[in-house]
Each structure stands twice: as structure tokens, then as C-alpha cells.
Amino acid sequence: MSSPRLFVLSAPSGSGKTTIAREILKRHPEIHFSVSATTRAKRGKEIDGIDYFFVDAEEFKRRIRDHELIEWEEIYGDYYGSPRSEVDNSFRDGKSVLFDIDVKGALAIKKQYPRDAVLIFIEPPSMEILIRRLTDRKTEDEAKIRKRLERTQMELEMGKEFEFHVLNDTLQTAVDNVDAIVRKMLTAGNPAVRV
Length: 195
Prior knowledge:
Helices cover 43% and strands 22% of the residues. The protein contains seven helices and ten strands.
């Protein structure tokens, strides 16, 4: 058995990374999910401590000052970050960790954990499909969707720095491809590949 890994899934909004992350966790209950902290409001049936740690801006800024976050960023007017304790506790228990975060956060984790982090970029099949997915999930108004799409080009560009790329054209195939990467990396280190 190899040492624990940090599997980091990133993608433009609407690419399916959260859905893929959930499926990977079902297949790998031995992997700990890193719950991010955020100042954004809950969506739908999200649960504090399960989907996110929902905190106010003052508490989030305290965590930044106290170096409690591995990475953090302000996105669309809200703060998001990964608590250091999620990694520390998992590594102490010999467990790998799965992150579902933005591209800048992923690259920050790679910088801090260059030997342990495995960056997997989920690519949308096309901009048209990405727009449809964002619209169909009905969680945001048109202005917020437009903001997310403005960020997409930067995310696609930064995604080129990731070791692994998985096209999410068909969800089941994308999940299988991410699962193949996870299984391979859990047993041994590998050079970058495109799936």
C-alpha cells in the first residue's frame, strides 16, 4: 500500500466535478472527503459539515489569519477554502483525501504537497453543453451564470497544468476514468496521462 494521496478534482462550474466526486466516494469509502469552508449561502438541501462548513466572513478571515486553511480564494463575492485539519487528520489516520475545489486552490495544494497531490481536471464537452448544464441545475440566476462563464476560460487555461484530464461527455465514462486514475495512483505514482 502506498502513502496517502490528495486527489483534487477541479473544473469549470457545470462540468460535473461534484457529481463525479460523489460517485468516486461511493466507490472508495476509504477515501476521506475534504469538506471546504465557505461564506456562501446554502443551496437546496446542503448540510453544514457535510457539503461545506458554512461560516460568516469574519470567521473565514480569522481562519486565514490563523493559517487554518491550506488554500483559499474569493470567488463570485464569497470565500472558499480547504481546512488544513482535513488533511492533517486524514494523513494521521493513513487515509487519502478527495477535494472538490477550484483550479487555483488545486494548484495551491500541489505547491504545498507536490509529492502527494494528484490533480484531475474535468473538462466539459463544449461551451454549449456547459451553458445548458448551468442553466438546467436552476440554482442561480442569469447574472450569476454569466459570471461563472466569464471565469471558464481562465479555468480551462489553468487546467492545462493538471497531471490528468478527463472529458465529461458521458457521466458514467467520466466516473470510470477518474476511478481508474484513483486506483492507479493509490498503488503507485505514475506520469501524467490524458484519459
